[in-house]
Amino acid sequence: MAEVRYRDATRIYPGADEPAVDRLNLDIADREFLVLVGPSGSGKSTALRMLAGLEAVDQGSIRIGDRDVTLVPPKDRDVAMVFQNYALYPHMTVAQNMGFALKQRGVSREERARRVVEAARILELEAHLDRKPRSLSGGQRQRVAMGRAIVRHPQVFLMDEPLSNLDAKLRVQTRAELADLQARLGVTTVYVTHDQVEAMTMGHRVAVLDRGVMQQVDKPRTLYRLPANLFVASFIGSPAMNLIPSSHDGRSLAFGSGRCAVDPVVATQMARFEATDVVLGVRPQGLALGTGGTPAEVVVVEELGSETFVFVELEHLGKTIRVRVRVDAEYSVARGDRTHVTVQGPVHVFGPDGLRLQTRSEADHGGST
Amino acid sequence: MTTTHRERVLTGETVWGTLTLGLTAWFVAAVFFFPVFWMVLNGFKEEADANASPRLFFEPTLDRFREVTTQTPGLLGFSEAFLNSFWVVAVSTVLVLALAIPAAYALSVRPVRRWRDVLFFFISTKFLPIVAAILPLWIIARDLGILNSHLVLIILYTAMNLPLAVWMLRSFFSEVPRELIEAAEIDGTGLWGQITQVMLPIVTPGIAATALLCVVFAWNEFFLAVQLNPVDASTVPIWVTSNVSTRGNFLAKLSAASSLAVLPVVLAGWLAQKRMIRGLTMGAIK
């Protein structure tokens, strides 16, 4: 059990121009469940593999607890890893798979058996201890991979998309079990996923990466409510935030045939930019259909049962744009309907550099609420 | 029935197509197997029967097998040749595996720099026809005083099979998912443990196949054996040809000797194929 510190950690693959991970600075607290999330190629897996020791750290350093592990080989880092494809030893039984690392460390046969049975009990694998991986289902294999990590009582768990090979239903179920397990064991965990729902539901904090650069690290709720920039705004939240290139007059932003007011502090910052250099961000929950506002036409209706998302097309700054609006499940709407859209919820303003403009209270709190 | 019908439609197969393919396969197999079958059959015949126009029905006899295995003083005997072959083949095959496994590992799991060139170098040693090299080989062997010894054949058979073994093992090693080695690394194994505890058990079928080929090639090797080793330590192929005589008929006798000579190879093949279960990595990933 330990905290993890990335300090300017950089990885440049041989022959590559751009670093796969570019000066990553990240502090992970003891017992924390930290999720690294980003699209493919964002460097999230590389960052994890650097911590595992499977990938070299070209610049900067990584610490686990009070030990600098930058140059320590994987076997001496005291970390356990769960791989995306599980990487179970096919020639060993479940028990042997789980006990393998302990055997390498010279743990006695009795102690090994005791810890394997204990882990198997936690993961409900007791009945399968003598079976080979090939006779297990996908979910069981995933749990064996987890078990292999648990029995070691390591300082840090590393998980590289461990749920991505499970079917949707099992994934949701295992997600909750895994979060619960991590809380019970209290082991610092770094978890990589491309699935922002997984990131939001499991992580104590979530670090968003894009093209090797960390964009923002914060609690899931903060990422959702106060995204630092356009990338985080578009990546976090499902369905995604509507991001609409707009124009400002120093006080408000254009939306459709109307305007929407912004916070005075934001407006002051906004006034520094060219009139058309701003992007308006509003989540589907922040828009409403009704009788007043900008005229719009319904083009797609997505009924999820609990709620409905409606794509509408409207005229905005001389162009036809498409935005997504959340409505209640009872709301009756069909393709081709003529309606009106109004902005009701929180409005975000992004400057030409992609950064979100902060209100005074946010700035005072350093961006976290 | 409907599913099989649909599958056939989907794969474009017809009953006639399947039948034609099946018959062709059986025909080709028969063409290949017939000479072997005829050889074994001849071994159980009298010389007169073997040399007469082909007859399927005859009085089987074990006399030819007795003849070829009877030791004639001063001449190369059956048991001597088999023992010589056994040692040469066994030792060279073990040597080949001991050298090829680390080489294949270094060329697949953790590729050394310029591994493609290294791989090409291995196979390039096979480019020179052995006939072109035999004179220098003979002179070197003579100067080293190892003509007519087991050692010269062990060295040459090891060198002969090594490139092939490295190539074969490399491709088997490459099929092992990288994550398995990484998992073993994180689980605390060093290089030796990764090879012996994870890699080798998984690629056992590949090693068995490679060993079998080495055994077959070394067992049947004739040219080097006859040039460098004609008197002492003669191997089975030389013993087989010693049954060719200039006087009288020898076809049945030669067939009997050849049948005995192929037995160990057939046995080795049978043993190896028991280890060649496919899909040993099943369950490792996903």
What are the salient characteristics of this protein?
heterodimer; A: 369 residues; alpha+beta; Rossmann fold; OB fold (Dihydrolipoamide Acetyltransferase, E2P); 2 domains; six-stranded mixed beta sheet; 10 helices; elongated; B: mainly alpha; 72% helix; globular
SSE inventory with pairings:
The complex is a heterodimer of chains A (369) and B (286).
Chain A: E1 4-11, E2 21-28, E3 33-37, H1 44-52, E4 59-64, E5 67-68, E6 79-82, H2 94-104, H3 109-122, H4 138-150, E7 156-160, H5 168-185, E8 188-193, H6 196-202, E9 205-210, E10 213-218, H7 220-225, H8 230-235, E11 242-246, E12 252-255, E13 258-261, H9 264-270, E14 278-282, E15 287-290, E16 294-303, E17 307-316, E18 319-328, E19 338-343, E20 348-350, H10 360-364
Chain B: H1 2-11, H2 15-43, H3 47-51, H4 63-69, H5 78-108, H6 115-124, H7 130-144, H8 150-174, H9 178-186, H10 191-202, H11 204-220, H12 223-228, H13 236-241, H14 251-275
Helix pairs in contact in B: 2-14, 4-14, 5-8, 5-11, 8-11, 9-10, 11-14
